[in-house]
Amino acid sequence: MGWWSERVVPRMADKSLSSRPIMDLRREVCAGLSGRVLEIGFGSGLNLSAYPAVVDSVDAVEPSDTGWELSSGRRATASVPVDRVGLDGQRLAAADATYDAAVSTFTLCTIPDATTALAEVRRVLRPGGTLHVLEHGLAPDARVAAWQHRLDGLQGRIAAGCHLTRDAPVLVEDAGFRVERLDRAYLPGPSLSKPWTFVSLVVAVRP
Ligand SMILES: C[S@@+](CC[C@H](N)C(=O)[O-])C[C@H]1O[C@@H](n2cnc3c(N)ncnc32)[C@H](O)[C@@H]1O
After folding, report:
1. Are 133 and 109 in contact (CB under 8 A)?
2. DSSP symbol at 127
3. Could you give the dihedral angle defined by the CA atoms of residues 102, 103, 107 and 113, in that order, rounded to the nearest 10 degrees?
4. From 199's CA, which of 105, 114, 122, 170 has a CA 20 to 30 Å away?
5. How many domains does the chain have?
6. Which of 174, 172, 92, 86 is nearest to 132 (CA)?
7. What is the DSSP code (8-state) at residue 50?
8. pLDDT digits (tens, 9 = 90+) for 114-148
């Protein structure tokens, strides 16, 4: 990882993804989590305050040491134990059917191969386990989508590989999950921000 991606982008993510509307959505997407939970792309731990009390443990997969350091205060005060179990969501060390639930928030946009990562998440979830996803991505409006395609390369260079044009609900369904909840909307903000603010909340079951 270069200096920008390793030192700056995790701090930008920590600030830009902790607004009130996003923290409200984190609470919504984490509702229903219980037992042993895997979180891929743990970042600075912004989901920790949203985990319900019935979560027993969180196994975090996070490549960025800066992101992990930024999460230290949140981990210290969390009501749930958190272990960093890996660096790459595309290759998980856990055995098949290890987890009751998995979480990915604003990670499927950035992880190089989201399809491989979702196949890995499916493998390590037990049958009946749930995947909880909060993600920005491809908007349904043609004009916004066109801007997303135009800006995608620049976004990737500025934000450590982040894409504007991925469609998280489609990726989740294509990975063999059964989508049980799907909410999609733009976050509040000016029209110009729309390429970045079309957000999907997905809860899906591993059959
Ligand atoms: C935009 S940040 C989101 C962080 C956090 N999930 C959140 O909601 O605030 C994207 C995260 O994906 C992580 N990431 C990038 N490549 C990854 C990979 N191969 N496996 C797991 N996480 C990855 C980054 O390090 C970063 O923490």
Report:
1. no
2. E
3. 10
4. 122
5. 1
6. 172
7. G
8. 999 999 999 999 999 999 999 999 999 999 999 99
Distance in angstroms (rounded) separating the CA atoms of residues 59 and 162: 23
pTM (predicted TM-score): 0.98
Ligand 1 atom nearest the C-alpha of 64 is 25
Cα(154)–Cα(148) distance, integer angstroms: 10
Name the nearest CA neighbour of 196 among 109, 104, 118, 105.
Answer: 109
- DSSP state, 69? H
Task: Dig out the tokens for 82 from the structure.
Answer: 């958190």
Contacts of 199 (CB under 8 A, 6+ apart): 25, 134, 135, 136, 137, 184, 185, 186, 187
Amino acid at 95: A
Q: Which domain holds residue 162?
A: 3-205
What would the two tokens of residue 118 be?
């979702």
The token pair at 97 is 């059917």
Output the domain CATH number for residue 142.
3.40.50.150
**What is the distance in A from the centroid of ligand 1 to the CA of 70?**
13
User: pLDDT tens digit string along 9-61?
Assistant: 999 999 999 999 999 999 999 999 999 999 999 999 999 999 999 999 999 99
Q: In whole angstroms, give the CA distance from residue 88 to residue 181.
A: 27
